[in-house]
Amino acid sequence: MSTATPHLHTNERAGHRLPVSRGRLSVDERVRKRTREDHPRDTPVPGAPPIRIQGLHKSFGDHEVLKGIDLTIERGQVVCVIGPSGSGKSTLLRTVNLLEWPTQGKVFIEGIDITNPDVNLDKIRTRIGMVFQSFNLFPHMTVLRNVTIAQEKVLERSKAEAEQIARAMLERVGLSEKADAHPSQLSGGQQQRVAIARSLAMNPDMMMFDEPTSALDPELVGEVLDVMQRLATDGMTMMVVTHEMGFAREVGTHLVFMDDGQIVEEGDPREVIAHPQQPRTQLFLSKVL
Ligand code: ADP
Ligand code: MG
Predict the structure, then answer these.
(1) Whose Cα sits closest to atom 22 in ligand 1?
(2) What counts of helices (H) and strands (E) characterise the chain?
(3) Ligand showing the shortest atom-to-Cα distance for residue 81
(4) Which distant-in-sequence residues (6+ apart) come within 8 Å of 82 by Cβ?
(5) What spacing in Å lies between the alpha carbon of 91 and ligand 1's midpoint?
(6) Which ligand is nearest to the CA of 214?
(7) Strand order through the sheet with 104-109
């Protein structure tokens, strides 16, 4: 798993059960064994886009939350997803990150059809970093330990290697001097930067952010957006659910406006923000700009 998400519940599909964290990072031994085995079906297809979503539907019981989403994200793109609360943005991200199973449609990660029941989802998930609104750091561990633990348990790196990588990633988010601190000693912005470092330490090929600055005091938003902007500049493929229109405009390479489980409008961020074509986009933007 790419991140520690202690609140996750079960992820199941026919004949295939995913390992999940319950209260603390737990990794199923059998999955680790499978993860070490290579199979062509689990190997990225050269040149394939990092993410291709085709005709994606997702229902919870009778409630259809995603109503046919088509979206392709090319390498190095920064796709920002905006839209009103409840429009399905988080569900879309969670489906791409394999935390939810589509009701209908397909999701390809680097050319691998993750709806194929035989693919090794755990292996694919290690290539997708995920940053949530809540940082989900372990409060009783140091910052350094928060960034090393999944490297050791999931990727089976040695302690020394994990620490070396953790320190490099903490430097990347500007927090080298906080390695020995505990999360409670950090501001929200610093904690979120640790969460980003933790994700980066897993060497993801792409990063998903779900409203990463929504829980922060306004004066702390900028430092997190700066880190994300640097990541984008370095060429990271990113999918970002955000209300930060400045970020979407300046850093985003593509903007997607969702409403009621559908993509209502998409395109060049500056173009969509300056000249929204659809009434629903116009209404939403008039409220957030
Ligand atoms: P957004 O992130 O755009 O605010 P979400 O994807 O979180 O929207 O939610 C879209 C809709 O799906 C909401 O009506 C929400 O209540 C519903 N929903 C999300 N997750 C679940 C779930 N696990 N079970 C039932 N309904 C859910
Ligand atoms: Mg959401």
Answers:
(1) 60
(2) 10, 12
(3) 1
(4) 89, 241, 242, 243, 245, 248, 255, 256, 257, 258, 284, 288
(5) 6
(6) 2
(7) 63-73, 51-60, 104-109, 112-113
Angle between the 143-153 and 159-172 helix axes, to the nearest 10 degrees? Answer: 130
Separation between Cα atoms, residue 229 and residue 70, nearest integer Å? 26
- Count other Cβ atoms within 10 Å, centred on residue 151: 22
Inter-axis angle of helices 218-233 and 188-200, to 10 degrees?
Answer: 20
Phi, psi of 67 (to 5 degrees): -120, 50
Centroid of ligand 1 to alpha carbon of 86 (angstroms): 6
Distance CA 289, CA 243 (A): 10
Nearest to 25 by CA among 134, 121, 147: 147
Test site for ligand 1: of 10, 65, 103, most ligand atoms within 8 A of the Cβ: 65
**Alpha carbon of 10 to ligand 1 centroid (Å):** 16
Atom 5 of ligand 1, nearest CA residue: 88
| Residue at token pair 């922060």 | 216
Express each pLDDT in 95-134 by its tens digit: 998 899 999 999 999 999 998 888 888 888 889 999 999 9
Name residues contacting ligand 1 (CB within 6 A). 60, 63, 65, 83, 85-91
* Atom 23 in ligand 1: residue holding the nearest Cα: 60
Q: Which listed ligand is nearest to 88 at the C-alpha?
A: 1
Q: Note the pLDDT tens digit of each residue in 208-226.
A: 999 999 999 999 999 999 9
168-205 residue pLDDT tens:
999 999 999 999 999 999 999 999 999 999 999 999 99
Pick from 258, 281, 242: nearest CA to 56: 258
Q: Which of 38, 34, 37 is nearest to 18 (CA)?
A: 34
